[in-house]
Amino acid sequence: MRMLLPQARDITVAEAYDVSSRRRVGGRPWIAMCMISSADGALTLDGKAEALGNATDRAAFLHLHRSTDAVLVGAATVRAGDVYSPLAAGRNLYVASGSGDLGAHGASLHAAANTHVVSGDVTDFVTEIVGDTCLLEGGAVLNGQMLAAGLVDEVFLTVAPRFVSDDATRIAFGPPASRDTWSLTQLCVDAEGFLFARYQRQLG
Q1: How far apart are CA 155 and CA 158, in angstroms?
Q2: How far apart are CA 59 and CA 49, in angstroms?
Q3: How many Å is the maximal CA-CA distance in the chain?
Q4: In the beta sheet, which residues pair with residue 136?
Q5: Which domains does the chain have, with CATH numbers?
Q6: pLDDT tens digits for 55-114?
Q7: Element spanning 58, H or E
Q8: What is the DSSP string of 147-185?
Q9: What gap in Å lies between CA 109 and CA 66, rounded to an integer?
Q10: Is there a contact between 129 and 29 (Cβ–Cβ < 8 Å)?
């Protein structure tokens, strides 16, 4: 991919999506959200987020999914996806669920000591997450709750060069979040015209 900001140069996915310098903040991990949307704001194409993406977006997501200390995701996203299996030792998966239903992979996930089902107020259970970095992987309702609570520090957003229209959900839904602007710290593009933006919440 090609970095456009802060300086023009070729860059690898691993460099563009590096979070190794991030550390815990306020008694919780540094929380980064990774999502994709169409150019007109849709979260899915024909009901599937992966249908919006391409190989670069997939590589970017998997790099973060495999390199952060923890992953936080809603149970509906776990049930709908094919990514979720027990994480490697030393890393932790947190699934926000009121029922504990984790779908087709539920038995193996529940059997893993490093899978944790959490529920209740997001401001409470984020303090249970161990490690310096946590990747927030949706869905839209959990994203909305986390943004509204001011618990997202960084957003990795892929913008697909597609216009979906229809009634597709946005990447976040729920209570209003802060109207403060975020800093665009990095912007990349790949050969297919997908944009890869990195935003950081402005503190203070």
Answers
A1: 10
A2: 14
A3: 48
A4: 33, 72
A5: 43-194 (3.40.430.10)
A6: 999 999 999 999 999 999 999 989 886 678 888 889 999 999 988 888 887 888 989 999
A7: helix 55-67
A8: HHTT---EEEEEEES----TTPPPS--SSPPP---EEEE
A9: 16
A10: yes
Q: What is the pLDDT of residues 121-165, one digit of tens each?
A: 999 999 999 999 999 998 999 999 999 999 999 999 999 999 988
Strand order in the sheet with 92-96: 9-10, 2-5, 182-189, 195-201, 154-160, 30-38, 133-136, 70-74, 92-96, 115-118
Structure tokens at 9: 């140069």
Q: What global pTM score does this model have?
A: 0.93
Task: Give CA torsion, residues 184, 190, 192, 194, to 10 deg.
Answer: -20
Enumerate the β-bridge partners of residue 34: 156
Residues of 168-188 as b/e, b for ≥16 C-beta within 10 angstroms?
Answer: bbebbeeeebeeeeeeeebbb
